[in-house]
Amino acid sequence: MHFPRNLFATAMHSSTRTYEGAVSVLNACVPVSIIKTSGQDLRRERYCRSLTYLSALGISEAQIKQLNVIHVAGSKGKGSTCCIIENVLRHLGLKTGFLSSPHLINVEERIRINGKPIDRGLFSDLFWSIHDQITPYTESSGIPSPGYLHYIILMACKAFIDQKVDAAIIEVGMGGRFDHTNFFSTPAVSVVTHLCLEHTPILGNTLAEIAWRKAGIFKPHCYAVVSRDQTDEVMRVFEQEADLVHCPLFVAPSAEEIMVLIENSNNQDHDKLTTNLASLCKSCLPDGTTTRFSNIELGLTAVHLWMQHRKGIVSDTIGLQPCPSIVLPQDSVNTALKTHWPGRWHKVYRKNAVYFIDGAHTEDSIQSIAEWFQSAWPTTGSGSVLRVLIFTVLGPRDPQPMLESLYRIVQPGFDLVLFLNPHPTGSVSPAGKESQHEHCLTCWLSLNSTGVPTTSLTGSVNDLTRLIAWIDQAPRLTRDCLLDFIRSRETAISTAEPSCNSYDIVEHCDTTTELCHILITGSLYLVGDALKALNEPV
């Protein structure tokens, strides 16, 4: 990674030691480019350097061990699984710390105590305390100053130690083996969610390569658990790595098995209660998708293994283990089912619109979200609902397969598609986070060239804020008035060339529409902008 050459000067000229000053210095630490480097270099630059910084702060390995860390990697469902684990442990009466990535609106969201983001005063105090201790050390030793993610993990560790949390849930930033967070030598549990092809220029071009990166969080004689929806190729890598590092590896059981085992613990009316729990799952997750079951299965299994660790029950076997017999109180299951992680499977109801918001940014995730959105399509009176897609992807991701899934699953199709740049106009995009909204438009128009044309446009995040505000205030919402607003001088949205049929009216759309279903997905940056515009708590 390459950082700005004037990083130290930027820190020195961030005049006030306030929250705003801390954020300014942190933002100056974001790399201006990402360079693919060798594993040995990544090891030295990332988690080995994290250990060096922790030592400079006087944080010992014993203090880190007392955090009873649950370390979570994966491609899909990391944040939701972390949130389930944290929520269940907290409802069991335990004090929790939670480090997540990325934030949606404000950076302090990344560090949570008992489910709540730390306040800005504590965030500022943590940053400046660490900055003041680290700076003399790096100046005298010649070691580079911490980058953005190093600062965040150092702040989280200090906060969790100071607050004396019972458990710390740590979400990996990217990959696992060479991640900034991978310095925990004795985690209580290592967790890997579903894997798919992602960040291929950095993590590898095959699932096996990506699995090797993720399995880097497995540690000797420490519990490891993975979701049960992994491919055979991925599981082979996981089993090899578990054997190599001498750790017990578990596969999370199915939701049906977890329910049976939970209720078997102390209830004689087994069959009836199991049926009721299955019904409870369906009533809590009514949207026609099984994706979230995987996160719940994995999260509850991780909680079970964490409780085993806390009791001092350590497995003396290595490699793949039989499915664990999970015993959890029913309240824990209810808590898991009701867990809500902002920006994931997130519905917002307004007078004129229902917003379906999810930060899905892989083909698998987009397919699940498309099914979720499609399940809300009314079986009768479908002409009364206007459907809008707001989408972009960032960095080197290929939007084509994601858009193909949306085009195929959402039927009879979207009435309006907006591809927005989530970065403010004139700002410099973070390394690897450049918006592909214009490329998305090209891909979408190619899909539409053989079917019924959809009005397709590109624009900026400012347009999203204005659009949401206008939708909320509109006395009545129709397709024509929505398009009139978008085409007005009040927005900076530009349409595709007329030759692409960008203004053609979709025949199935009724111009008397009074309700709008809006799907916002493809990027957590875009999701954060939407939640901010909607004034949703995160």
From TrEMBL:
The protein's matches in InterPro entries, at most eight in alphabetical order, are given as: Folylpolyglutamate_synth, Mur-like_cat_sf, Mur_ligase_C_dom_sf
Keyword Endoplasmic reticulum assigned: no
Keywords of the record, alphabetical order, are: ATP-binding, Ligase, Magnesium, Metal-binding, Nucleotide-binding, One-carbon metabolism
Q: What is its EC number?
A: 6.3.2.17
Q: What class of enzyme is it?
A: ligase
Q: Which Gene3D superfamilies match?
A: Mur ligase, C-terminal domain, Mur-like, catalytic domain
Q: What parts of the sequence cross the membrane?
A: none
The entry sums up its family as follows: Belongs to the folylpolyglutamate synthase family.
Name of the molecule in the record? tetrahydrofolate synthase
